[in-house]
Design a protein that fits this description.
mainly beta; four-stranded antiparallel β-sheet; about 45% strand; elongated; disordered C terminus
Length: about 160
Amino acid sequence: MNYRFITIALALLILTACSDSEVGDVSLGVFTTKDIKLDALQDPIITGVTCHISSIEANLDLADPSDSSIACRQTGPITATMIAQIDKSDSGEVVFKKSKSIFFKNMKVRRIFDAKSQTLMYVSYSTKETSGSYKHSLSTVPLWNTDAYIVNANTNSTNEVSAN
C-alpha cells in the first residue's frame, strides 16, 4: 500500500475541510487550488444580525490572499438589552477571527457602534499588510425600526417600539 499517497490525500482533506460557518464554496477553475469561501456569522451578542463574508482560500499555499468582502443584515430581533451588552468604544470588539496563514495573518470582523446614527458597523480586515495596504471591507446595520432604536427629543430619550 502506498502510504505516501494516503498521507497526501489526508493532508488535502484536512486543508480543504469546511468550517462550521461555511455556507458556500465557489471554485475559481480546474487549474487553480484557490476557491471563494462564503461564511455566515451570527453576531454572538446581537443575535439578530448575520454577516456573510467571502474570502479566497488557497488550499495548497501557506497563506491565503488578504481580500475579503462582508455584508451584514438584520435577520432577527435587535433589542436594547443586546446593545447595552456591547463594547461601545471607538475600536469596538472582535466578533469573528479566522486564520489566513501559518505566519500569523488573520481575517477579523470587528463590531463598532455608531451611537449618533444608531448603526452597527461591521468591518472585516486582514491583520497583515499586503501590497502596501491592509485589506478591509465594511457593512452597516441601522437600528431604525428595531426595539433598540432610541428616539432623541431634546432632553428626553425613550425606546421606540418596533412597528412590525
